[in-house]
Amino acid sequence: MTKSVLGILIVFAFAGIQTLQGQPDDSLYWQTKAETVSGLAAVESGPDFGLCWHSVEKPQMRKPAYLVFARRNEQSNWAYFHCVWDTCFVHYGAALFYPEIAYEVHAYYGSVRTLPGYPRDPQDPRLPGEAIRDFWEPPFDPQRK
Predict the structure, then answer these.
(1) What whole-number distance in Å separates Cα of residue 31 and Cα of residue 78?
(2) Is residue 77 within 8 Å of residue 120, measured between CB atoms?
(3) Integer Cα distance of 49 and 119 in angstroms
């Protein structure tokens, strides 16, 4: 009995230490941090934030996807938010709920199919956001009232 209680306490202590350490170094944010774009500007426009940045072009490389990371305030960790192929992005409604939000954008040359939120079916051509919306929103049916 004493050994099992001791074992459980060790597991909880280890889990607590892992939680206090924050983001692991192998997170997507830290893996792509070296490719941070320049000229990022976040402009509040009504309830939305519009983001624009300079494009990244490297010889011998294909055009990158851009990973948008956000954090709600100084105390929170950076979190992957969205993937885009253009140099502008609109975060709808963010100014209403997260006036202190901060953004960072990284160029990404890897497979977008491995990103969080991407459809699990490799034959599905939809972008990550479209797949999530399709899952939660019913299809438009003009006959339904």
Answers:
(1) 12
(2) no
(3) 26
pTM metric for this prediction = 0.63
Q: How far is CA 137 from CA 17, 57, 91, 119, 133, in A?
A: 39, 36, 19, 15, 6
Token pair belonging to 11: 């597991």
Catalogue the E-assigned strands of the chain: 41-45, 48-52, 65-71, 79-84, 88-91, 102-108
Tell me the pLDDT tens digit for each residue of 98-125.
889 999 999 998 888 778 766 555 556 6
Question: What number of other Cβ atoms are within 10 A of residue 38's Cβ?
Answer: 9
pLDDT digits (tens, 9 = 90+) for 38-84: 999 999 999 999 999 999 988 777 889 999 999 988 888 898 888 99
Q: Tokens 């992957």 appear where?
A: 80
> How far is Cα 117 from Cα 113, in angstroms, rounded to an integer?
9
Cβ-Cβ contacts under 8 Å for 29 (sequence gap 6 or more): 23, 69, 77, 78, 79, 80, 104, 106
Distance CA 39, CA 25 (A): 25
Residue 53 token pair: 């940045």
